[in-house]
Amino acid sequence: MHHTDTSSKRVALLPEEKRAAISVAILVALRMYGLFLIMPVFSVYARSLPHSTPVLIGLALGVYGLTQAVLQIPMGLLSDIFGRKPVLTVGLLFFITGSVVAALATDIHTIIIGRAIQGAGAIASVGMALVADISREQVRGRVMAIIGMSIGAAFMLAFMTGPLLYAKIGMSGLFWLTALLATLALIQLHVFVSEPKKHKSIRFSLEELLSTLKNPRLLALDLSVFVLHAVMTAVFVALPLVLSEKLHFPPERHGWMYLPVLVLSVAIMLPLIIRMEKSGRHAQYILAGLAGLGLSQLLLPLALVSVLTVAAVLVLFFGMFNFLEAGMPAWLSRLAGEKFRGAAMGMYSSSQFIGAFVGSTLAGYLLRHGYASVFFGTAILVFITALVVWRVNQSGHVRQQL
Fold first, then answer.
1. How many domains does the chain contain in total?
2. Phi, psi (5° rounding) for residue 171?
3. Cα–Cα dist 261/145, whole Å
4. Which of 92, 255, 349, 364 has the most crowded Cβ, counting Cβ within 10 A?
5. In a domain, 2, yes or no
6. How far apart are CA 219 and CA 343, in angstroms?
7. Are 14 and 143 contacting, i.e. CB atoms less than 8 angstroms apart?
8. CA 317, CA 34: separation in Å to the nearest integer?
9. pTM metric for this prediction
10. Burial class (CB in 10 A: 0-12, 13-18, 19+), 209
């Protein structure tokens, strides 16, 4: 009965691994909470800004992802040369500066500039590299899962509190709060996170990049995270406008809807994560998650009749999104192996942020054809991705049997 348990599941985290994982998780959560805070309300607020158009609203939400994507690999390379903490420090300072620029903005163009500067603090791949530096191969998936859960918790908390805080302090206040939280993350970094004594298996090279480009499963995972974040940003260009303009549900009350929705979504996410890790059948579970995400997008246009029906569909949407957000990095750490992990992380992070840019920009264009067009567009993207993942997984099984 115990025979099926692998040794990797039985290896306990060392005290220093646990401490480092929790420290990095808090650092990431502080930064991501500030980032997610504006998502539930930004498109409603931006409607009233001078020179605002649906396309510029989408660009303001998404340009952060563009600068992130462009700078992920260069920042990773710099961290190999100068160390993880110095590069994480520079990245957080960029993020703080961009937050301040956006807080002081009085038009949509200045907010776009602020968001672009925020994105220049492209430290996701450096943070993942730091985690790999301080953890052993046998427990790395578990450490990544701790950080994935901290991002999920920050995401949920931001969606619950963002609309309530927006009602109290406005959009400028949310950006100031984001700057403050990033400052706390900077303090956390220098007080609690130690610079790894040596770097191992994180170096990025062209050879590694080309090797990851030849791995269909890694490419399918890059496509999946690209689409996941494209869908998330697209939905939150359109959804706050649907709630406030079509259903006449004021933005300051949106948080009360997200609270039960996100709590209920955990009942979908947690069992999926637990079963996936126990079974080791990551591809099948990721495929099921994509199918559920696509279904939520097909149901959203049909749900635009009341706040209650929208909330019911959002339980499915958030459950699948949070499952995929936590589950895909765990699969990545297994697929990439020790040798190509640096390049795989760089590609994954870049794909994620390009997706955020493409999704929000695409939603800005689709909004001109109505709210439903945004959700139908995201549904098509998800089902195409699910088909690709299925085909890649099937061909992988065939190769293994041969």
1. 1
2. -65, -40
3. 23
4. 349
5. no
6. 12
7. no
8. 22
9. 0.81
10. middle
Q: Please report where in the chains the tokens 């009602």 appear, as a residue.
A: 167
Query: Does 10 reside within a domain?
Result: no
Quick one: tokens of 228?
A: 């996941």
Any domain includes 9: no
The H-or-E segment that residue 189 falls in is helix 140-192
Q: Of 108, 99, 101, which is closest to residue 54 (Cα–Cα)?
A: 108
Element (H, E) at 23: helix 15-36
- CA dist 157 and 147 (Å) reads 15
Q: Within 10 A of 197 (CB to CB), how many other CB atoms are there?
A: 8
CA distances from 313 to 46, 90, 171, 188, 310 (A): 25, 40, 27, 37, 5
Residue-by-residue pLDDT tens, the chain, 402 positions: 444 444 444 577 777 778 878 888 888 888 888 888 898 899 999 988 998 999 999 999 889 888 988 888 788 778 878 888 899 999 999 999 999 999 999 999 999 999 999 988 888 778 877 877 777 767 766 777 777 778 778 888 888 899 999 999 999 999 999 999 999 989 988 888 877 765 544 455 566 666 666 778 888 888 999 999 999 999 998 999 999 999 999 988 888 898 899 889 988 888 888 888 788 788 889 999 999 999 999 999 999 999 999 999 999 999 999 889 878 877 776 776 666 666 677 778 888 889 989 999 999 889 888 889 999 999 999 999 999 989 988 875 544 433
Q: Which residues contact 15 (CB under 8 A, 6 or more apart)?
A: none
CATH code of the domain covering residue 81 = 1.20.1250.20
* Contacts with 183 (C-beta within 8 Å, 6 or more apart), sequence order: 96
The answer to whether residue 394 is domain-embedded is yes
Look up residue 333 and give its two tokens. Answer: 């750490």
Q: Which residues contact 320 (CB under 8 A, 6 or more apart)?
A: 268, 269, 289, 290, 292, 293, 296
Range of the domain at 286: 15-401
Please list, in sequence order, all residues whose beta carbon lies within 8 angstroms of the beta carbon of residue 81, skipping any fewer than 6 positions away: none
Q: Three-state DSSP class for 200?
A: coil
